[in-house]
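## retry 2 of 3
previous attempt timed out at serialization; input unchanged, resubmitting
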Amino acid sequence: MDDAFTLLRRAAGLLPEDAAAENGWTVADARAELGLQEWELALDLLVDIADVHPVPVDFWETLAEAARQMMSERTRRWCEWRDWERRNGTIRATLTLLPADESRRGRRTAFAGDGRLRPLWDIGTRTADGRSALNVARLWVESAPQLGPGGTADVRLAPLTPEQWRHLTPGDVITLHEARPVGGRAEIIEVRPPQG
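## retry succeeded, writing output
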């Protein structure tokens, strides 16, 4: 098994030389940080670049393993998440949780936004007898480590059965349930197909 340094170098080699993050950092910058043995910074730069630039099939797996070896747990989970999106598609939405005082038997505390929460969602599908079907999807909160009652944030969803979610389009509103009562509502802002 390759060490983290080798994996980071390999990941940098999988990106085109002109690939850049939104903040202007480039692959050359990531390589320079590797030369200075600033592995954590190089990992962060490669993630930032790949979040806005198409990447080859094994890129996210390579970075996830490097992050695992570096004991960067949240980054490892993010790389695994992005690899899942590459294979299954991307669903992004703006989620607003009900305030604690409006959510009967609902959430009273914040939850970690790193993909571990697996709530139920009403996405408009029906059971054979016509009732609302609830579908499971993991939830990743963008740009925040957690989200609490009454909060609003852009989120990414990883459905347990992605094919059941293919009908969603930007503007659709879906409902979050952590139990039977409604816990929040989300408006779809982006749906992208798998990248192969």
